[in-house]
Amino acid sequence: MSNTTHRPGVQIAHDVDLAKTSAPAETGPPLIDLNDVSVFYGSFEAVRNTTMPVAHNKITAMIGPSGCGKSTILRCLNRMNDLVPGARVTGKITYQGQDLYASDVDAIQVRRRIGMVFQKPNPFPKSIFDNVAYGIRINKIKGNLNDMVEQALRGAALWDEVKDKLKMSGLALSGGQQQRLCIARTIAVKPDVILMDEPCSALDPIATAKIEDLMHELAEQYTIVIVTHNMQQAARVSDYTSFFTAEVDDKGVRHGRLVEFDATNTLFTSPSDKRTEDYITGRFG
Ligand SMILES: Nc1ncnc2c1ncn2[C@@H]1O[C@H](COP(=O)(O)OP(=O)(O)OP(=O)(O)O)[C@@H](O)[C@H]1O
């Protein structure tokens, strides 16, 4: 069987026995583990044979040129692709050792444990307070609502800026504040994992720096997976990085493919694969 293996320090390798691979010793078992994952939209295989771990309380970045399937893989991690008609996932994704796609797993519960922050800040047209309280209310999480909202806003480094205007619309905030509001809304329901799909691409450099600082703080409590177009950002914030590319098959169809997964420092300073090196040195992509 042709497969690819992407444990730290291991470049893409075809025809490798997956059973011989293991998670990095320093991080223990991965919180999320992707094993030979392919994703289809209808008959189109968008991403092929992705095998990589997501380490607990670390930041894992996914980088690569446009269309190589980073967002597609990210959306598999909390079953967001279930909402896309025709989308299909093969291979295995485990979360805390359990098959995320087993028939008895409730996708809504998965999305509560594995939250998502999108590229464009998308607060609800509600007050700042109600944006953060939303998930607490619909999930009927017990506790003092005011305290939980404050805690989430503090966790998202937004409390000091909004504590006197909690009734103001979330849409009246700046773009960077809106993104931190969305992060507060995500952490209000106390997930284990935060998925971030290019969370800074709509933000200016100052707002971006605030989100990057915040990510470091959040990583003390949460496992984070971030898709970013910005290689410097991946190098600054992440502990592990996976590099994807798009390969054209003999019928001329482009498929996303994981090329290399490693500790971020290693991937950026001594990549194992020429394609990674070409990308990070700006020779292509
Ligand atoms: N809902 C969808 N239906 C059909 N094809 C899709 C869908 N979403 C993505 N694709 C296709 O899957 C492939 C991977 O797309 P994806 O958005 O995951 O790539 P990406 O690496 O995140 O790209 P970008 O960096 O531009 O956001 C592309 O060919 C894209 O056109």
UniProtKB/TrEMBL annotation:
<dbReference type="InterPro" id="IPR027417">
    <property type="entry name" value="P-loop_NTPase"/>
</dbReference>
<dbReference type="GO" id="GO:0005315">
    <property type="term" value="F:phosphate transmembrane transporter activity"/>
</dbReference>
<protein>
    <submittedName>
        <fullName>Phosphate import ATP-binding protein PstB</fullName>
    </submittedName>
</protein>
<keyword id="KW-0813">Transport</keyword>
<keyword id="KW-0067">ATP-binding</keyword>
<keyword id="KW-0547">Nucleotide-binding</keyword>
<dbReference type="Pfam" id="PF00005">
    <property type="entry name" value="ABC_tran"/>
</dbReference>
<keyword id="KW-1278">Translocase</keyword>
<dbReference type="GO" id="GO:0016020">
    <property type="term" value="C:membrane"/>
</dbReference>
<dbReference type="InterPro" id="IPR003593">
    <property type="entry name" value="AAA+_ATPase"/>
</dbReference>
<dbReference type="InterPro" id="IPR017871">
    <property type="entry name" value="ABC_transporter-like_CS"/>
</dbReference>
<dbReference type="GO" id="GO:0016887">
    <property type="term" value="F:ATP hydrolysis activity"/>
</dbReference>
<feature type="domain" description="ABC transporter">
    <location>
        <begin position="32"/>
        <end position="271"/>
    </location>
</feature>
<dbReference type="GO" id="GO:0005524">
    <property type="term" value="F:ATP binding"/>
</dbReference>
<dbReference type="InterPro" id="IPR003439">
    <property type="entry name" value="ABC_transporter-like_ATP-bd"/>
</dbReference>
<dbReference type="GO" id="GO:0035435">
    <property type="term" value="P:phosphate ion transmembrane transport"/>
</dbReference>
<dbReference type="InterPro" id="IPR005670">
    <property type="entry name" value="PstB-like"/>
</dbReference>
